[in-house]
Amino acid sequence: DQETQTEAVRTAVEAIADRLADEKDHLTDLDSAIGDADHGANMDRGFRTALERVEETDGDPADLVKAAGVALVSEVGGASGPLYGGSLMKASQELEDGITADTTVAFAERYLETVEERGKASVGDKTMVDALTPAVHTYRKSIEVDDREPIDALGKAVDAARRGVEFTTPIRAKKGRASYLGWRSVGHQDPGATSTLYLLEELLDVATE
Ligand code: ADP
Ligand code: MG
Ligand code: MG
């Protein structure tokens, strides 16, 4: 029922906030190589605030996801706040009828579309889009073509995101701060693709429990 789903969203945001706190230094290291060394602090602060908001928000799952997005936009400047937060706000509309296989596919696609629209990045630009795109496409195909359960589909999506993150290392950045480095960005893993993978891994973890 709705209360169970609402609680599941709180649990997921908590798991993500904990994971990002654990990975704060690692994400900072990745961003110090090709950016301005704040991605760990941004994500940690953003999701800590998002967790506070979803804990004090009453409503359906869509309301909670929206509240998390608003928190990220207001708490995190830079590239990642509006991309993560604005996309969560937009995609939350797809969850208004609750959390099902179909609504989660719509949510995932809307999230990816919004990131692409706002960031103007495509696959191969060395951004979060490189983790997100294969994950979302795999999730959709696993459900709609291969007829998998959402949890199996999410497992496949996480594997796809992991390969997407690996793919960011050998390529040159064409969007975001890392693009200022040109060829010197080659050989470094993208921080935003990495944090996107952590989010998906935690969603899978929570869904599996
Ligand atoms: P900032 O670069 O403003 O300091 P963060 O360090 O928090 O912001 O986030 C950097 C990450 O944001 C990058 O690793 C990349 O994945 C992502 N990013 C940057 N610009 C874009 C963009 N135009 N489209 C998609 N993702 C982007
Ligand atoms: Mg940064
Ligand atoms: Mg910054």
Automatic annotation (TrEMBL):
Protein name as it appears in the record = Dihydroxyacetone kinase subunit DhaL
- Family matches, as InterPro entries: DhaK_L_YcgS, DhaL_dom, DhaL_dom_sf, Dihydroxyacetone_Kinase
Q: Which residues form a coiled coil?
A: none
Q: What is its EC number?
A: 2.7.1.121
**Which is one Pfam family of this protein?**
Dak2
Query: Mind listing the GO molecular function terms for this protein?
Result: phosphoenolpyruvate-glycerone phosphotransferase activity
Q: What keywords tag this UniProt record?
A: Kinase, Transferase
Q: Which residues cross the membrane?
A: none
Residue ranges of every copy of the DhaL domain listed in the record:
7-205
Q: Which NCBIfam families does this one have?
A: dha_L_ycgS (TIGR02365)
